[in-house]
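ok trying this again, last paste got cut off
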Amino acid sequence: MQETLLFDQFTWLVFAAPFLGLLVAGSSKRQDPVIRGKRVLRHDAPARVSHWTHAVGTALLLVSGIILGTRFSPSFVTGDDAAATWFNVHFVFALLFLFGTFYWLGNTIISRWRFREHMPTKNAIAYTLNHYGSLLGVKKCTYPKEAKYFESERMAFILAIIATVAVLASGLLKVLAHALLLPEGFMNAVTWTHDISAALMLLFFLAHVFFGAVLPVSWKTLKSMFTGYVPLEHARHEHSAWIEELEGKGAVEATAAEKDETGGQSVPLAAGRKEGIEHV
């Protein structure tokens, strides 16, 4: 008996997941980055949720997509039942990917500075060369004063956006083909677009994992994707421009011990949205 395809049976869920992501984003309470004692809040809870839902969804979509095969790579499944099983796995993680992506998008629409802090600046090339040159011991290179995100990360963000938009648009069209009869030539182009953009996303994903999780220098920042915090000393060295900005805007909060020493008074925080502090 042939297994039922979830893409056929629950097509509507693929279009409901983005709506749910936007809805949750609209009801989420975000928190500004703040220096608390010897720690800095880098990623608040909604930022961590959007990151991990998108990341896990992306990873498992890539795995299931590779197993199913693409226009330029072989399939690792044999038989209709096995293919249907992996298409259903692809379906489940497509929902997670869509929720995480649109949750992030909703937060970005509400607070546009979230998008700007990811975009490269005019210093992108110079900072990137100096950043990695100094790490490699090149004498003429000086470690730059990086913001919350490295300029190299900001440039990679452009590739991530392009690949995500292409995968998203082509994927939704492929799902729509389960409910509507679309021209064969058009769907052939859509499938090629989906597979090529997925390959680009795979390259970005592998680079992101290597620089963000494998290299020891990134481990303290990686920890913040679980706890929300990075050590102040680490942030001051790696992201000195960001720390100077937070201190300049008064985004410094006293710890419990410091409050006891000052009679319960804490250092006032900047106004956040009103003052224009860049959110996560």
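PB: full thing came through this time. The mean pLDDT is 89.
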